[in-house]
Amino acid sequence: GFSWTAYYDVDSIYGYLQNVSQQNSNWTQLVVAGKSYEGRQIVGLRINTPTAVDKPVMFIESGIHAREWITPATTTYFINELMTSQDPEIAALRDSFDWHIFPTVNPDGYHYSFTRDRMWRKTRSRSSNGCYGADPNRNWDYNWMDYGASKNPCNYQTYGGHSPFSEVETRTLAAYISGLENMLGYVAFHADAQMLLLPYSDSTEHTANYDDLKQIGETSLKYGYAVNKAKYEGPGTAAELLYKASGGSMDWVRHAHGTPLVYTYELRGRYFHWPPSRIHEQGDEVTQMLLGLA
Ligand code: 0X9
Ligand code: ZN
């Protein structure tokens, strides 16, 4: 069975999503954005309980960086909370949004980090010079390659790809997102800087709603802090708090769609390790952070 005391490979995660959707088939739905370079599906779960009003979309992106295993794990943990929690606040959270939740948007990379190289970060596309993968958080078509990205396909970390949206995974996800109407929020999960980041990632310029983003983010962190007393840095722009890096999903979503609430959570851990026995702890914290955000 599936639990939250171990990490699982892509197939098991998709199996879990499938079970959840089958058990609650009138208000959840498996959604497939498309396929990865190696032909894996990019699968998400839509949770949209029947309510009288049209609900705003809340999108969750996890696992864009392969080695950041805690992000798919906490995302399925959060799904399980939405589906099973007896807490009326969590039930209200579930009912307040049309959720589109994608735990592993880079399934090839994630699988590779599981089976070959624990520190793998990128996709697994093959470059003409024989090196593998591009950084899917440097590949989106907004200010592509301006800052913090490598032009060298053999760069282990931040190769931006041969062109914007060269990677089928980012292209596929962007197309899926573009098909959503009424997207209020976009949340990306990373590890392990323990921060809450706002757009923009490559400019210290602030969005027009920066003050709102900051205030909402502070509430989110306050909710999270109550669980484990873990202090996250921020909220602040990724450019100011971390480093300037262009071509990330967060900036593209903000720019291309004007989505009001765009956040990147950098979860906890060290060198991308987080003990499986403590997935619950991170999962409860994230659940509260999203409740605070909502
Ligand atoms: O560099 C990144 O993509 C993220 N940090 S990580 O250590 N998980 O790789 C930061 C994401 C913030 N957004 C951008 N910098 N675009
Ligand atoms: Zn990351």
Automatic annotation (TrEMBL):
Its cofactor is Zn(2+). Residues 6-294 form the Peptidase M14 domain. The active site is at E266. GO terms for biological process: proteolysis. Keywords: Carboxypeptidase, Hydrolase, Metal-binding, Metalloprotease, Protease, Signal, Zinc. GO terms for cellular component: extracellular space. The keyword Protease applies. GO terms for molecular function: metallocarboxypeptidase activity; zinc ion binding. Belongs to the peptidase M14 family. This is Peptidase M14 domain-containing protein. It comes from Chrysodeixis includens (Soybean looper).
